[in-house]
From TrEMBL:
InterPro entries for the chain: CTAG/Pcc1
GO cellular component terms, A-Z: EKC/KEOPS complex
Family statement drawn from the similarity comment of this UniProt entry: Belongs to the CTAG/PCC1 family.
Region listing for Disordered, in residue ranges: 92-115
One Pfam family linked to the record: Pcc1
Bias (Low complexity): 92-108
Gene3D superfamilies with a match to the protein in the record: Alpha-D-phosphohexomutase, C-terminal domain
Name recorded for this polypeptide: Transcription factor Pcc1
GO BP field: tRNA threonylcarbamoyladenosine metabolic process
Amino acid sequence: MATAGAHAGAPKHRYLMEVPFPDARLAEIIVRVMNVDEELRPEVIERVVERRDSVVIIRLESSDLKSLRTAVNSFYDYFLVSVHAMREFRETGTSASSATAAQAHAQQENIGAEH
């Protein structure tokens, strides 16, 4: 995706997060939930949320590092709310493991080191 405006031609910063879920069904639910809303600033942030088997893969890219960090923090909050909501419905068989949230949190802390 080409970036418009002042950031055209600037190198892209990338963030990648892979979160394993207990099964592909739960991963697909999260992917569908996370893809409901479009990115608010698609000219600044490129977002891809997809599934490979039972792993949710999140990629965010921007030529502006500050915008990328803001987008990652916002996305991560939304992601955790979704995982916690799934956990609340565990009696219907749609819970994600607490290890999943812990792994996502551990990977999130590394954002400052990767760009």
